[in-house]
Every structure is written in structure tokens, then in C-alpha cells.
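Entry under discussion copied across for reference:
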Amino acid sequence: MLTAVDHVQLAAPPGSEDRLRAYYAGVLGMTEIPKPPVLAARGGCWFQAGAVQLHLGVEDGFRPARKAHPGLRVTGIEAYAARLAERGAQVTWDDNLPGHRRFYSEDPVGNRLEFLEPTG
């Protein structure tokens, strides 16, 4: 029986770790968590905020997905969107999900991210 999502993995091009750290830690406010040594040798980086973990794995021939994305629930979505915009991240609002406020953004390598907050 499934009980929770442990993490979501996104791909990234080789050598992009510093840009990913700047975005996921500096812009989103997540904390980088250490990868096990055997996995750290492959590159990439992992981040956590509360129970949410995002793993960024290096992929040769990387191409960002344009439709696939993690949906990340936030509180105080207006202030969170302002935080991203103030730090130079694109914020694109979408009002097409009833009962939610949501926006999309992209990390520095082009991965699409959805941020949402229930309204009711």
C-alpha cells in the first residue's frame, strides 16, 4: 500500500549544480541535504523543505520536460510568488484549477514547477 511520496527527481545537465543550488536554496528557500557518497559521485544535488524532497540528477543529453512537473503545495502563495519574483524567477499565474491559487515557474535549467495553495 502506498503511504506517501518520498521524493520527486528532476533531471539537470552536467555541471549545473551551482545554478541549481542558487535557485532551490536561494530562491525557493529549500535546504540542501547530503547525498549518500556513492550517489554524490554521480553529480546532482538534493533539497528539502519540511517533508518535501526534490532530487536533481545529472542526465547526459538533458532536455527539460515542458509539461511534466512536480506540484508543490505552499502557504501564503502571494508572498511566496513575490519572493520568487524578487529573486529574478519567472512567475506565471494560472487560474484554471478550481479551489486553488497557483502559478508556474522554471528552475535555471528549464524544469517546470507548479506552486499551489487551496483557497477553501
About this structure: The mean pLDDT is 96.
